[in-house]
Design goal:
With about 220 residues, this protein is an all-alpha fold. The chain contains 9 helices and no strands. Helix 3 packs antiparallel against helix 4.
Length: about 220
């Protein structure tokens, strides 16, 4: 999700992503910095926290006034981020438990498997609402989504590919509307890197909104 170098710390990645999604600001407040430090101590991948931030921002995006930041502070994301952290840790703990040899209980699914299953279910539901997209969805399920990613970053990339493929499948006039919605509220004072991250976030949010796939 971030365009920072791979050597960037967890705290740097979170700050970079939040400020880009927020669309304003150059640094976090002292209280927000303390919160990032607490999340770093949880020992979860950056993508888990970024997912909580993006979900919080997406919910607030369509209510924000023009020129107004999507989120006023990182603390506004706290509940959603900590929900994602809890889900990740619970699922990771389940993965580490070995079932008895005689048990018929299904193995616990990973965080990536749960997200992958939800995305596939959302796409199948989409075919029932929009017949014209059904061929593209079936192709995605057979190719891009044929395998479950093994790490959070790969899951993020897989979901992004699927959304962009669906965007390209829309009629030109609808694609133009989605792109215009994604550019609304873009801050020109952001760095080029932050602008790219923000634009990608807004574009994916606009595609999900158009396709009514907000809860993937």
């Amino acid at each position: 999700m971030s365009l920072l170098p791979e050597s960037a710390s967890f705290e740097e990645l979170v700050q970079d992503y939040f400020l880009a999604v927020r669309g304003a600001g150059l640094m976090l407040s002292a209280l927000d910095t303390e919160l990032v430090t607490a999340w770093a101590q949880e020992g979860v991948p950056f993508e888990v926290v970024a997912r909580g931030i993006s979900r919080s921002a997406e919910k607030a995006l369509w209510d924000a006034r023009p020129g107004e930041p999507v989120l006023r502070s990182l603390r506004a994301c706290r509940r959603q981020v900590e929900t994602e952290i809890r889900k990740y840790r619970d699922l990771s703990a389940g993965q580490g438990e070995e079932a008895p040899p005689t048990s018929k209980k299904r193995p616990a699914r990973s965080w990536e498997e749960v997200r992958h299953a939800r995305l596939c279910a959302a796409l199948r539901a989409l075919t029932e609402r929009e017949d014209a997209l059904a061929p593209r969805v079936h192709r995605l399920l057979d190719t891009v989504l044929a395998c479950v990613p093994r790490e959070p970053a790969a899951m993020d990339q897989q979901e992004a590919w699927a959304l962009m493929a669906l965007l390209r499948a829309l009629p030109f006039t609808e694609r133009r509307t989605v792109w215009r919605d994604a550019r609304t509220g873009e801050q020109q004072l952001m760095t080029a890197r932050a602008r790219r991250v923000a634009r990608r976030f807004r574009l994916q949010a606009a595609v999900r909104r158009r396709l009514d796939m907000k809860e993937t």
